[in-house]
Design brief:
Blueprint (H helix, E strand, L loop, with lengths): L7 H5 L5 H9 L2 H15 L14 H21 L4 H11 L4 H16 L2 H12 L5 E4 L15 E5 L4 E5 L7 E2 L10 E10 L2 E2 L9 E6 L11 E5 L15 E5 L2 E4 L8 E3 L5 E3 L10 H29 L3 E2 L10 E2 L4 H36 L6 H29 L11 H8 L9 H17 L16 H6 L13 H24 L4 H7 L1 H24 L8 H19 L1 H6 L5 H18 L3 H6 L5 H4 L10 H11 L11 H9 L7
Parallel strand pairs: 1-5, 2-5
Antiparallel strand pairs: 2-3, 3-10, 4-9, 5-6, 5-7, 8-9, 11-12, 13-14
Helix pairs in contact: 2-3, 3-5, 4-5, 6-7, 6-8, 8-9, 8-10, 9-10, 9-16, 9-17, 10-11, 10-12, 10-16, 12-14, 12-16, 14-16, 16-17, 17-19
The structure holds Palmitoyl-CoA and flavin-adenine dinucleotide (FAD).
Family: Belongs to the acyl-CoA oxidase family.
GO molecular function, one term: acyl-CoA oxidase activity
InterPro entries: ACOX_C_alpha1 (IPR055060), Acyl-CoA_ox_N (IPR029320), Acyl-CoA_Oxase/DH_mid-dom_sf (IPR046373), Acyl-CoA_oxidase (IPR012258), Acyl-CoA_oxidase_C (IPR002655), AcylCo_DH-like_C (IPR036250), AcylCoA_DH/ox_N_sf (IPR037069), AcylCoA_DH/oxidase_NM_dom_sf (IPR009100)
Length: about 675
């Protein structure tokens, strides 16, 4: 039977080579081929079916996710997949499970903080999954405030042991993924006490990491350990496939050599030694690594929501504004729909490119750290923290907007959007609350501004070198067309970020106690950080356009996306641009007018731009976002696939409806 492509006319409108754009989106022909292979491996394997997931109760759901993880592991071994291939396989299975934390945090924690000897011992066991680990940092009472962690690790020189203890209820480890039911091991963060002295309490970092066995061979917890799951989380299915756990220690003894010893050591005699050439910030290194991974992945999440909303918008017709009777307008042709949808489409591409750049930055930092060069760590910390915060917040808001863009059908689980929202929303909290992370960026920016004159700003803050120009030269835009020039756009974002940073730094200087100033101005400081991070995203998109990009019309289509992203932000934050005096109201309104022109240029390419994400229908798991656009018959069928429709008489009907119909309520 011939397949009908309901989006064919839309696809025919494309003004660029979609196959070439797929390569740009994937990063390289090799990446495209790799992702395509893994996505189809998952899509064509019945073990990875996921449409029934939201109907399952927690225990079934969890068992189902363990089955999928075991199947994935079997595929990795049977097909001899590389670590990179296995990572994409897990990604397309699209179900948070314990291996995410094992590979994403436990192993990197050992790699970053273990001594050579410890790495030799634990990494092969971990990579072969002979042990399964998690990352236990957060406690019930302290998440963002890492310095407040209460779990203690007291050295007992007589027995050459550490005694790990949870002295209060609030010191219970709380949230670690994979901890509740599965992990055999944990990297646990605790305060170190040697010879009755807390180590590091006077410095910045007062906790140390230890690797632990949690269970005995029959998987009952070791004596002194209480472990469990934190309970049901938001959304059906969604993150409930993960066993986020709780953990308490009652004077649990572990050998001294289970303290991760790259940053500091405790000797057999109980002497505490800190490695001179390794900064203590390294203990935060795993978080830098995972924040980078989140930024690398987040564009895929946003692109998925945008793909669904764009395809449905290009199919569904509503009345025109002049006639409420004739259903002739495609939703995508409403200007108001475009002004909500197209900036999200542009954001997906913008986040992809900034994610690529961040990966490059992180790879460079990692190599430097291995060679004990820590000079770029502050920049890496600020960039990973800020971009994690900016992109996850925008993505989660974007998914919610896509749900609304699909009208009522977006609210159906079969649209794929509610579960995507539920599974993504904790990204604003885990790996650092987004506001807390933005405050870290603000600290970095304010420090850079304060040091102007005796320390050269580098990397993402190098615009601060041109402070004088940025503070005094205002925008030169005179026509709408003037706005679509890369260097002009970047300069506007630089000027806004620099002016906001300088104003805040001056306000901070008026406080006698800097910490009090920082606290009182924290809302403004978050805005400074947002301006700095948006500048990074815009400038990395503009830099991408300066590269050689093959394929008919590809570069032109990307230029439109870049300017949509940037001018949408100018419009959204025009208050910042106006208050700082960089723009006049006329220039701001020219930016908005130009934005409307850009939407009309983007419109014919919209479907092709989401096709270039190369998402399979399995990955999208959305009736309204199907590739073939055959929505309505499938939407109808999906309603009958719900077990709730198995019978016309639901449980409780005879008991609770009959008495009302028969007016026999008194018998209840
Ligand atoms: C939308 C869909 C997405 C898709 C998705 C993909 C899947 C991807 C799976 C993920 C799966 C989830 C897994 C969740 C796993 C957890 O959530 S693990 C727990 C994560 N917890 C956190 O992130 C806690 C957040 N809190 C913190 O990081 C710290 O406490 C804070 C906020 C940095 C403050 O710490 P502090 O010690 O009070 O530090 P502070 O005095 O501010 O700074 C001290 C110095 O250290 C520096 N520093 C601070 N942090 C660092 C750092 N990390 N590195 C280097 N230097 C640092 C500061 O810059 C400062 O430097 P100087 O100015 O002195 O030079
Ligand atoms: C799904 C999920 C998975 C997780 N996985 C793990 C894991 O594997 N391992 C692990 O160790 N942890 C994990 N966590 C815990 C996570 O890292 C913490 O929830 C996170 O760091 C935030 O800490 P908190 O929950 O204590 O929030 P809080 O710090 O209590 O924040 C609550 C509110 O207070 C505000 N706030 C807090 N501090 C400040 C401040 N200094 N200035 C201004 N505002 C502030 C925040 O902005 C926020 O609005 C996970 C959490 C979730 C939801």
């Amino acid at each position: 039977m011939e397949l009908v492509d309901h989006l064919r006319d839309e696809r025919n409108k494309a003004q660029f080579d979609v196959e070439a754009m797929k390569v740009v989106w994937a990063g390289s022909p090799q990446e495209l081929q790799l992702c395509d292979r893994m996505a189809n491996l998952v899509a064509n394997h019945p073990a990875f079916e996921k449409l029934k997931r939201p109907m399952l109760v927690r225990k079934e759901l969890f068992k189902n996710s363990l089955r999928k993880a075991a199947y994935a592991r079997k595929l990795v071994i049977d097909l001899g997949l590389s670590e990179e291939e296995a990572k994409w396989l897990r990604f397309y299975i699209d179900e948070p499970t314990y291996p995410d934390l094992h590979w994403g945090m436990f192993i990197p924690a050992i790699e970053g903080q273990g001594s050579e000897e410890q790495k030799e011992k634990w990494l092969p066991l971990s990579r072969n999954m002979q042990i399964i680990g998690c990352y236990a940092q957060t406690e019930m009472g302290h998440g963002s405030n890492v310095q407040g962690l209460e779990t203690t690790a007291t050295f007992d020189a007589q027995q050459d042991h550490f005694i790990i203890h949870s002295p209060t209820l609030t010191s219970t480890k709380w949230w670690p993924g994979g901890l509740g039911k599965v992990s055999t091991h944990a990297v646990v963060y605790a305060r170190l006490i040697v010879n009755g002295e807390f180590h590091g309490v006077h410095g910045w970092y007062n906790y140390y990491s230890f690797s632990f066995f949690l269970y005995l061979e029959d998987h009952s917890p070791l004596p002194g350990i209480t472990v469990g799951d934190v309970g049901l989380k938001f959304g059906n299915g969604a993150y409930n496939t993960m066993d986020n756990g709780l953990l308490r220690f009652h004077h649990v003894r572990i050998p001294r050599n289970q303290m991760l010893m790259r940053v500091s050591q405790v000797s057999r005699e109980g002497k505490y030694m800190q490695c001179d050439d390794v900064p203590r910030q390294l203990i935060y290194g795993t978080m830098v690594s995972v924040r980078q991974t989140i930024v690398a992945m987040v564009s895929r999440t946003l692109s998925r929501a945008v793909c669904i909303a764009t395809r449905y918008s290009a199919l569904r017709r509503q009345h025109s504004s002049s006639s409420l009777v004739v259903p002739c307008f495609l939703m995508i042709d409403y200007q108001s729909q475009q002004s909500r949808l197209f900036p999200l489409l542009a954001s997906a591409y913008a986040f992809k490119f900034v994610g690529e750049w961040l990966k490059w930055l992180y790879t460079d930092v990692k190599q430097r750290l291995e060679a004990n060069d820590f000079s770029t760590l502050p920049e890496a910390h600020a960039s990973t923290a800020g971009l994690k915060s900016l992109t996850t917040s925008a993505t989660v808001d974007g998914i919610e907007e896509c749900m609304k863009l699909c009208g009522g059908d977006g609210y159906l689980v079969s649209s794929g959007l509610p579960e995507l929202f539920a599974v993504s929303v904790p990204a604003c909290t885990y790996e650092g609350d987004n506001t807390v992370l933005m405050l870290q960026v603000a600290r970095f920016v304010v420090k850079t501004v304060s040091e102007v004159g005796y320390k050269e700003p580098l990397g993402t803050s190098s615009y601060i070198r041109r402070l004088n120009t940025l503070l005094h030269n205002n925008c030169l835009v005179q026509t709408g067309e003037d706005w679509v020039k890369g260097d002009r756009i970047v300069e506007a974002f630089e000027a806004r970020a620099a002016r906001m940073a300088v104003t805040c730094t001056q306000h901070l200087a008026k406080f006698q106690d800097p910490e009090q100033g920082f606290s009182e101005l924290s809302a403004d400081l978050v805005e400074v950080a947002v301006a700095h991070c948006q500048l990074i995203v815009v400038s990395k998109f503009v830099e991408k356009l300066a590269q050689d990009i093959p394929g008919k019309g590809v570069k032109e289509a990307l230029e439109v996306l870049c300017y949509v992203y940037a001018l949408f932000l100018v419009h959204k934050h025009q208050g910042d641009f106006l208050v700082t005096g960089y723009l006049t109201p006329k220039q701001a309104s020219l930016a908005n007018r130009q934005l409307r022109i850009l939407y009309s240029r983007l419109r014919p390419n919209a479907i092709a731009l989401v096709d270039a994400f190369n998402h399979t229908d399995h990955y999208l798991s959305s009736v309204v976002g199907r590739y073939d656009g055959n929505v309505y018959p499938n939407l109808y069928q999906a309603a009958f696939n719900d077990p709730f429709n198995d019978s016309h008489v639901p449980d409780g009907y005879h008991q609770y409806i009959h008495p009302i119909l028969n007016q026999t309520l008194a018998k209840l």
